[in-house]
Amino acid sequence: MKQNVLTRYRVMAYVTAIWLLVFTVAIIAKYGFETGDTMLISQIHGVLFIVYVVFAFDLGSKAKWPFGKLLWVLAAGCIPFASFFVEPKVSREARALVTDPAPVTAKA
After folding, report:
1. How many CA atoms within 13 Å lie on the side-chain side of 8?
2. What is the rounded distance in angstroms from the CA atom of residue 34 to the CA atom of residue 64?
3. Which pLDDT belongs to residue 96?
4. Is 34 helix (H, G, I), strand (E, B) or coil?
């Protein structure tokens, strides 16, 4: 597995987690305090979540995860704050599988 597969997953895990928190605050503001609208925030989070699912599935298939683990990683994108705990653990496990070739150095 290449390093960029893990990097894509990590970036989208954090971006999705942050937008989920923004969406949660917007929902609380809308229904708790009757202010604001959540349409744009929910659409942005929805698109980002779809990209997260694609990248998490790509990482899971290349890391040969069992289906239950893949579902747990995907569910972490739906639970506020969960991605901040699941992503570091997943990244530690996946780093052991990264097989990037050694960098090419120029000869002088």
Report:
1. 16
2. 46
3. 81
4. coil
